[in-house]
Request: fold
Amino acid sequence: MTVTFLDPPWLHDSNTSTSGLSGSLRERRLILDAAFQEFTQRTGIRVKHLPTPESPQDQLALIRNLLQKGAVTPDVYDLDVIWPGILSEYLIDLKPYFTSELRSEAPEMLASYTVQGKVVGIPYRPYAGVLFYRTDLLRKYGYDRPPRTWDELEKMAFRIQKGERAKGEKDFWGFVWPGAAAEGLVCNALEWQVDEGGGRIIEDNGKISVNNPATIRAWERATRWVGWISPPSVTSYQELDAGNIFWISGRAAFFRGWATNEFLRNPPGVPFRDKAGVTSVPGGKTGRADTLGGFGLGVSRWSAHRPEAIKLVEFLTHREAQLEAVQSHSEIPSRPEAYELPTILKAYTRPGNQDEELAGKIVVRPSSITGKKYDDVAQAYIRALHSVLTRESKAPEAAAALEKKLVEITGFETETPPKEF
Ligand code: GLC
Reply:
């Protein structure tokens, strides 16, 4: 008996390249392979592990296509937190099988995997948006902690960039982030907006809030970074491109990436691993926000091995919980050095570093409220913001045009400024 598992987060392992971040992430595949072996030993069920394409959009297209045509395999899917609303009709309700596990899940996470009362994914590996920083460079330039606000980040990034360039590192940049026209941009920009009190594009009450002065200011601020503390080509960086500059070539002081518990326990063996620190994303007027990302496990309604598929979901989520419990009591110092991390990252952090007031609050993309339309909403948002970052349009006009477009796509009403913030 074999259960087939389609697993977007492990796509990088399948890349043939051995250099750069994608090559080093290969190590992590070994960890999961060991878990599958243990599962097979215990249950006699084998696991066929399939990778996916790199971009979230291509991943979704592949998965949607398989489910729409009623493919009997894969049986288990690892689902991005923004997909449940789009795929729910093809996935079984897992609530009856996981009642006790679900009770201990963070509400924002559970909400993202619940569609009309049906739980279509069990949170497995939450990601939080974080800021990685170079501990050695902060120290060298006299900073005793990473930035808490964008103002602080700009100052530090600029000073370090100037200093490193003066020492001959001509291609050194203060801050790298994924600015390409892709889902990663929604995740980053949500943090910029929420920090300023600009809301979450579409609020939980179904009101479109994106066209407001705080959001416009946040977009304009990020546009100023391009060519100043961030490379001009940042607007074409995917997540791995930005990550490679920070982790592999060491040519940036700050990098907005993702952290998972798994990552904190087992950071990849990359050249700048021991010099890196990790903290919440900097904030603005209303505090700090870290976008929720990550994956949950769902079972296809077309699966011919439903009980076995559910067993695999149980096994993987329990194993993750056990690792967390062991790790949070362990004395092993974590790498990279953790500081003011968002609370969903439960893996070991150094005592004394954790001040919940100063840590970022988790924010979710508007995927539950927009359901099947999330993808169109995200694409419209990406197009509008990307045209601002590349200076093809001005933020106020782009936000106004986006608002109209979102009304067209969703049929929702507008609300500016957003009530929640
Ligand atoms: C990460 C996150 C996912 C997000 C994607 C964007 O994979 O886990 O939630 O959609 O990045 O690129």
Summary: Confidence is low (pLDDT under 50) at residues 12-18. Residues 2-126+293-327 form a domain with the D-Maltodextrin-Binding Protein; domain 2 fold (CATH 3.40.190.10). The pocket of alpha-D-glucopyranose is lined by residues 56, 80-82, 127, 183-184, 187, 239, 258, 293-294 (CB under 6 Å). The first helix runs from residue 11 to 14.
